[in-house]
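// run 5 | inverse folding | seed 20
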């Protein structure tokens, strides 16, 4: 078996910055601990050293200027970038889940719109807080921190700056949030687009139904106001539904294809410890008549549902109970395939909205990068290396 070696090394340096406001040159002590594997001890150490040197060269610490107390723009930019990159996956995960819940008909279009608006607003506010938090409001306190670091020998002044120059240049760090806010605003418009288009088209929204926008020939299901309490919430039913055009009293009820839940359970037997009582809302799914003349018409759906469910019988046995429910629900139809078109609009609006949220995060990342590049790049003034013993691994 090939043996691999790991090298754990500690690299440190003094890194100098030129203050962006008072011109002070100051340096702080920086330390990085790196571990790396390799085929031999020498190779592992070499790789660890290269990784450590890269970290020392590319990263900066959080240390204020000893003369004017300014945290340098590149320090702030790196911190903002880190927080934007941490928050972005959570934001996109939330949008992904929300989109899935809508497409699976678990939540309705209006609920999804409300959540999407809330999500986009939260994404905007999170970005605003990340960029809005400035560590340079209290320069006096920052100078106090710098003094403590000097005493602890982690910070030193190479060349003092000019405090007057600092007060002249004291301007708020540029907050390039305008573009990011513009993308957030456009994202809100994009997710609201399907709802605006639906209203413009005059398509009815049926609050009780899933999907809520339907046309002739499409399938939709409705939760009834009734529910059953049964063992483990199990139930099955036989359903008959007739529909009638409410605007035409002379029309005859039409029977439509319908379905409901078909749970199964053992016919009888002793109750088990896992047999708890749970309450479930009843639902019915219908295939609406594919009659184009029903476009824009309101239908009254007469629903007759006979349910069966397991219940507790004598001597802790399981018995089947039956109960009938009669209910009427109204439903206004849009054009044929309206549900499909509305879903496509919704996906287009939603994906555009999510894309624009991504653009707002990118705008903030770009702004942080611009801020980082504004300053004279920090440089390593002294560095050293301490190598810890290498430990062979099997
Ligand atoms: Zn300064």
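// decoded
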């Amino acid at each position: 078996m090939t043996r691999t070696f790991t090298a754990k090394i500690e690299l440190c340096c003094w890194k100098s910055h030129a203050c962006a406001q008072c011109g002070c040159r100051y340096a702080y002590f920086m330390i990085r601990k790196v571990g790396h594997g390799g085929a031999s001890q020498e190779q592992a150490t070499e790789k660890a050293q290269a990784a450590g040197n890269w970290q020392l060269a590319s990263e900066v610490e959080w240390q204020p200027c000893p003369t004017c107390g300014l945290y340098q723009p590149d320090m702030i930019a790196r911190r903002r970038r880190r927080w934007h990159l941490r928050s972005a996956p959570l934001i996109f995960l939330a949008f992904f889940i929300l989109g899935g819940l809508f497409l699976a008909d678990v939540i309705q279009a209006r609920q999804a719109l409300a959540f999407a608006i809330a999500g986009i607003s939260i994404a905007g506010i999170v970005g605003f807080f990340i960029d809005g938090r400035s560590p340079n409001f209290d320069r006096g306190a920052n100078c106090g921190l710098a003094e403590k670091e000097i005493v602890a020998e982690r910070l030193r002044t190479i060349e003092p700056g000019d405090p007057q120059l600092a007060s002249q240049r004291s301007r708020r760090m540029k907050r390039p949030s305008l573009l990011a806010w513009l993308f957030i605003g456009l994202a809100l418009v994009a997710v609201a687009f399907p709802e605006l288009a639906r209203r413009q088209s005059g398509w009815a929204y049926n609050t009780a139904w899933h999907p809520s926008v339907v046309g002739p020939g499409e399938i939709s299901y409705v939760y009834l106001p009734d529910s059953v309490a049964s063992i483990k919430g199990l139930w099955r039913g036989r359903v008959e539904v007739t529909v009638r055009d409410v605007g035409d009293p002379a029309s005859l009820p039409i029977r439509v294809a319908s379905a409901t839940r078909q749970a199964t359970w053992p016919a009888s037997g002793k109750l088990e410890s896992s047999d708890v009582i749970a309450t479930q809302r009843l639902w019915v799914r219908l295939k609406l008549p594919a009659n184009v003349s029903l476009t824009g018409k309101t239908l009254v759906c007469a629903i007759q549902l006979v349910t069966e469910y397991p219940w507790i019988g004598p001597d802790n046995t399981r018995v089947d109970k039956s109960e009938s429910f009669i209910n009427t629900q109204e439903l206004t139809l849009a054009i044929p395939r309206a549900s499909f078109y509305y879903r496509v609009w919704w996906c287009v609006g939603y994906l555009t909205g999510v894309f624009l949220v991504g653009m707002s995060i990118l705008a903030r990342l770009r702004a942080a990068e611009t801020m980082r590049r504004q300053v004279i790049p920090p440089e390593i003034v002294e560095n050293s290396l301490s190598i810890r013993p290498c430990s062979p691994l099997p």
